[in-house]
Amino acid sequence: MELISHPLAPGATPKGDRDLSKFARETLIKLLGSVANGVFGLIGVVVITRGLHSGKAGAFFEAFGVFTILTSSAALGADTGFMRSIPRSRALGRTRDIRRTLAVGLLPIIPLAIALASLTFVFAPQLGHALAHHGRHADALVPFLRVFAPFIPIATLMAVSLAATRGFGTMVPSVVVNNVGGPALRPVFVLTAFALGLGPTGIGFGWIVPFAIGLPLALVWLMHLLRQAEAVVLGPSTPPRPSRELAGEFWRFASPRALAAFFQTLITWLDTLLIGALRSTGEAGVYTASTRFVAVGTVLVQTFIVVISPQIAGLLARPEDHPRANALYRSTTTWLVMVTWPIYFTLILFAPLLLRVFGADFVAGHTALMILSFGILYSTSVGPVTAILLMGGKSSWNMFNTVVSLSLNLGLNLLLIPRLGINGAAIAWFATIFVNNTLPLIEVRFMLGLSPFSATHSFVAATAAVVFGGLGLLTRLALGLTLPAFLGFALVASAIYAVIVCRNRDRLNVAALRESLKLRGRAEASGAR
Questions:
Q1: pTM of the predicted model as reported, rounded to 2 decimal places
Q2: If you write DSSP's letter for every residue of 123-185 in order, what string do you get?
């Protein structure tokens, strides 16, 4: 892999080293938050599945899926719009445009979010019957839908505000509010609701109320970063542009992203909703709980996406910086494979054992978990390719890709779920993941001239496959699916992998993490951000 610091790397410059160091610093912060998010999120799901039987757990997950889809829809693509527009404005010396951009991006989403919340609350019974096969467990869905509905505007504003803070080049607000604070509070509140016997309304409220706590924190943090950026303008600053001009530029990019975001979120939750509608809410509960292990790894993927997006947007704003963007993309993808592939090979080989944490009913989801893990192996191998496409300004292409993926997902789910149940849903998702990553991979290569692949990428992938895939398979065949065998495998494989990474640390640019901490210390000492 042509890493930035290599003397033969295309675009290898001191600036390139700083790009990677900044990325490493912010990734380290976000990574710690993602680990906390994954752990607390898994604990929350365990609390739900242990406290509710699979049918009611399925109703809960379906209701939360509806909430997530509507929240994403209400954002209208403003979250991605801010992650692109704010760093672009700063890179082009237009810092004085940012305040007006925030206004034109935030204000339109409020009435839409309120309207969606009102419709969900009023039509909760009809929605519950539509999502429950032959109406079974429909009554269990309604309380959750009505508790979640009023929080749609709150969650939407929080998500968009946190995305805007990421546009200023910091992961700290997102980590504190979204990755640590909310996920840590949910299991506590839900356990309290169970202990007090508050029923579905109390359980749903305990799960959702952290959004109300996080919103004011997100808004205060955003205003602080805005004032800080306005006080310290780097380089020449141009006069502020009219709000109408800013709104036109912002929404021309964000509008296609709004539809794409709706489709992408729908893809994520469509299988759960269709399993409930075509099979049973019980199977929907088993499937959703099983995929939570996949989510533990995907939060790491999201870490790389949210960190790289503002940096790539700034680099792609200037054609002379495109080689730096390509080098950062390649380094990011290699790191992503290095971190995530051990997780997914472990999930593939030890799925039945790991799923016991949710209860005996949920072990039935082990085949689905294996299929989905293979899909994530592929998606991580191409890196944050969708984010690269978006930050390159190709939101309409992203919308096209998402429409194609959604159509494929819907068709395969309708075909396979009635016949194969949750395994059919997993196959449909695998195919969707493949298409949804291959299309932008081709577009990024030919339209932006960027590629994630390199010799170091192949080396890391092969190492993870041999150490965790090969050794894991030998362990399972020789010792079976027992907890001692799993713990022994995890210890030995992790040690071998760590030694290999350490010996190849220069090739992998692991030193960038250490340098990033030095840069952070200097920045804080100078009062810069």
A1: 0.69
A2: THHHHHHHHSGGGTTHHHHHHHHHHHGGGHHHHHHHHHHHHHHHHTT--HHIIIIIIIIHHHH
DSSP 448: I
State the DSSP H helix or E strand holding residue 436, giving kind and residue range, or none if neither: helix 422-443
CA distance 162 to 160: 5
What letter does residue 232 receive in the DSSP assignment? S
Q: Do residues 177 and 162 make contact, with C-beta atoms less than 8 angstroms apart?
A: yes
On the CB side of 262, CA atoms within 13 Å amount to 12
State the DSSP string of 483-505. HHHHHHHHHHHHHHHHHHHHHTT
Q: Are 108 and 153 in contact (CB under 8 A)?
A: no
- Work out the percent of the chain whose per-residue pLDDT is above 70: 84
Cβ atoms of 529 and 169 closer than 8 Å? yes
Place of tokens 């080098």: 327
- Determine contact, residues 351/407, Cβ cutoff 8 Å: no
Q: Tell me phi and psi for residue 48, to 5 degrees.
A: -65, -50
- Asked if 26 and 19 touch (Cβ cutoff 8 Å), the reply is no
Please provide the DSSP assignment of 5-50 as one string.
Answer: TSTTSTT-SHHHHHHHHHHHHHHHHHHHHHHHHHHHHHHHHHHHHH
Residues ≥6 apart with Cβ < 8 Å to 480: none
For the segment 348-383, what is each residue's pLDDT rounded down to a tens digit? 999 999 888 887 778 888 999 999 999 999 999 998
Residues in the chain: 529
Q: Are the beta carbons of 213 and 185 closer than 8 angstroms?
A: yes
Buried-state track 350-383, b at ≥16 Cβ within 10 A, e below 16: bbbbbbebbbebbbbbbbbbbbbbbbbbebbbbb
Cα–Cα dist 260/265, whole Å: 9
Q: What is the DSSP string of 456-468?
A: HHHHHHHHHIIII
- Is 328:308 a contact under the CB 8 Å cutoff? yes
Give the pLDDT confidence score for residue 330 in this predicted structure. 83
Domain boundaries, the chain: 14-524
Q: Please tell me the distance from the alpha carbon of residue 231 to that of residue 221, in angstroms, as a whole number.
A: 15
Q: Is 78 exposed, middle or buried (0-12, 13-18, 19+ CB in 10 A)?
A: buried
